[in-house]
Predict the structure.
Amino acid sequence: MLAPIAALRRWNRRRSRLTSALVSSPVAFGLLVVALLAAGWNYLMAESSRDRVAEAGGVVLEVERLFSSIKDLETGERGFVLVGGENYLIPYDGARDAIDRSLAQLTTITHGRSEALVGGGKPLVGLVAAKRDFAARVVALRKEQGFEAATDLVRTGEGKRIMDAIRAEVAVIRAQLSERVAKIQRSDRLRGLLLAVLTGATAWGAVALLAWLLLLRREEGRLTSALLEGVLEHAPVGLGFLDRDLRLQHRNRALANLGGSGFGGGLGQTIWAALPALEERLSAPLHAALRQGLATADIPVPVPSRTIPGGIRRLRMSFYPLTVPNAEGHPEIEGVGFVVAAESAARV
């Protein structure tokens, strides 16, 4: 007979949903990939931003050191002009070395772009070179021509103009780098927020799709199981399952009806419990199925008739092994299935 009509209708209604779920499966994995890419991109961009902020901070620190060394240079130059003692050239020479180190460090930090340190006027590197050249000329005049010649050059105001330009340029560079750091941080916050939302949305979307697919597949399995149970229950032949001890674990309605003939014991009993004489006839095919995995078909089995007192009803039985995969995935016999049919139905 057929499975319940209502179950079949539910199956037809859900097929389109299951097809949609199967299509959603690659979409869910695609969303997971997008989430991972967004998270990775966010990490890489954050690392890049940290590097740029560190570079800007290093430039500001080194520019401050450079400016301090230039002031030391000017102080040593003035002391030598005023006094003329060689000991005043010690801080002057030290400042020149410190300026060289700062310029080299700026070249390293900016990856060779220290000449690009321009605030609002001339490049800082050029202004520093001009200041060093002016200080060197003042010191040379003091050594060669004396105090008056050196002070005449200082009174021209060239050194002050260069120093004022350096001071202004340092202030502009400091402000520009501070603004650059603030801009990077604002961009980081916005990008981090957007990518976090994107990552979270795609990840949760993927999880939701996979959960929906899992629920639909579970529903499909439940419905398939219900359909199978309906087929077994309404089959026109007796169907039953025996465990490894040959005790009856399941029987359909047709097999239960055969109990009126005295055939088939109750659940948990052997099938010959009511008719012990059947044990000799059925033991061999049952053990062949259970121990060797062999199927045996159409064994004639006489049982008492329900309708004719003292009469015999002839049945035919078939046995087959029931296997399930073990832990290694290999089939393992867990019991015996059997089919019981009236001889007239068997001939049809």
